Amino acid sequence: MQRSRVFLDGGLYRAISAERAPFYEHLLSAGILEPHARVAGAIHGVPTVGLRFFNLYGPLSPYLGVISIFADRLLRGEPVEIFGDGEQARDFTFINDAVCALRRAMRAASTSAFVFNVCTGKATNVRSVAQTLAEVCGTELVVHRRPARCSQVRISIGDPERLGFTARTTLSEGLAITLNCLKRIAGSASVSQLEA
Length: 196
Description:
Elements: E1 6-9, E2 12-15, H1 25-44, E3 49-53, E4 56-57, H2 65-75, E5 80-83, E6 89-90, E7 93-94, H3 95-106, E8 114-118, E9 124-125, H4 126-137, E10 143-146, E11 155-156, H5 171-186
Parallel strand pairs: 3-8, 4-7, 5-10, 6-11
Antiparallel strand pairs: 1-2, 6-9
């Protein structure tokens, strides 16, 4: 079975097994849920499909994370805080693309309990996300650096090939749509309050 995360290891990007990976809640949940799905298929004949979502964002997405924090600060004319050097890479996936991947994955449900990554397969560093958001906002990016977080994953990139899915929304398109939606919803409220 493919592992969903790719880590920087000795200067090389490579997928590593859950046993060798740093301990993260995503790996823990996959290590518990995916074997349950295999049991459901093998013993009870229940068709399943496992999905590993990578940094979903977009209007009304359940996850906005760094995108909503950066957008909130930029819209208020405040500096963006970046932890570490800003080169932490993520695979940001627009919610509309994730819905297309979900529809494709549902057709693959079987008793074999296949697991698919819902991702773009492209790395974008955190500083680039901040810069692109600033451009979409029409403002200059001012960054305040903070010390790197010790528990932070440096690089997290998915491989969408197994699902045979290609994301169609560019990061700048997705961020523009997301920002416009956040502006409409937020009104006078803080954008980051939307996540609560």
